[in-house]
Amino acid sequence: MNLINRLKGKRRSVDDLIFDSINIVIMLLLVVVMLYPMLNTLAISLNTSTDTVRGGLRLLPREFTWYNYQHVFNEAQILRAGLTSVLRTVTGTILGVFASAMVAYTISRQHFFLKKFVTITFVMTMYMNAGLIPTYLLHRELGLIGSFWVYIFPTLIGVFNVIVIRSFIEGLPETLFESARMDGAGEFTQFFRIALPLALPVIATVSLFVAVGQWNQWFDVFIYNSSIPELSTLQYELMKVLSNSNAAFNSGAGAESAFAASQSGVIETVTPQSIRAAMTVVVSVPIIMVYPFLQKYFVKGLTIGGVKG
User: End-to-end CA distance of the chain, in Å?
Assistant: First the structure.
C-alpha cells in the first residue's frame, strides 16, 4: 500500500513538472510576442531614419541618434499640449471615476426602486449612438465648444465602468450596509465609509481605463477645439506632426522631406516611420510609469468586478 502511494506521489510530481515546464514555455513565448513590438519600436525611434529604411532592424538601433525625438519636441506647441494632456487626464480620471462610482453605488442598492430602469437605460446607450452631428450640436448648445470642459463632461460617466463598479459593490457583504444603517448612517456615509474604501481594487482598475482613454484621445480636439492652440493636446499635436511628415514624404521629397544639419555637420533626416516610432514611445511612457503603481489592484479589481453581470 505504501509503495502504491509513493508511486502515485511520484506520478503526480512528474505530471506537475511537465505542466510547469509547458506553462513556463508558453508564458515565455507570450512575453516575447508582447515585448518584441515594443522593443522594435524603441529601436526604430533611436535609429537614424536613413538606416531604418534599409530594414532588418530588430531589438537594438544600428546607428544611434536622438534626432527623431528632437524633431518631435521642436514643435512649438508640444510642451503646452503635453501639460494640457496631463491636466485633462488627471481631471477627467478623478471626476469620471468618482461620478461613475456614485452612479454604480446607487444602482447597486436593492431598495432603489428605479434600479432596473436606470440600468437598462444606461446599457442601451452602449448600443445606440446619436451620431457625430447631433452630438456636436448638443455640445454647442451647452456652451462646451471652445472650452476645456468639452474633454471632461461628455465622458464623465462611462457605462462599462459603472457596470464593473456596480458588480463589485454588489459582491460586498450586505450586512456591512445593514449594520451602518442601524447605526444611523445615511447613503453618503455608507458610500464614503464602506463602499468606496472596499472598492479600491476596482476603482484603481477603472481609473487606469479612464486615464488611458483620456490620455490617448485626440479626435475630440480635432472636432471641437482644433482652432484653439491653448486647448490642444499632446496626441493631437503629434498626430499633426505625423500627418505633415506623411504629406512631405509623399510629395516626392522622399526620405529628405524633413532634415536639419546637426552640430557635427552631418545631415539628419526623418521619415514617417521614424516619427511614428518616436511618437509611440512618447505617448506610451506616462502610462507605463503609472501602471506599476496600480498593478496590484488591477487583476483583483478586474476579476472580482466581472463576476456578476
Answer: 49
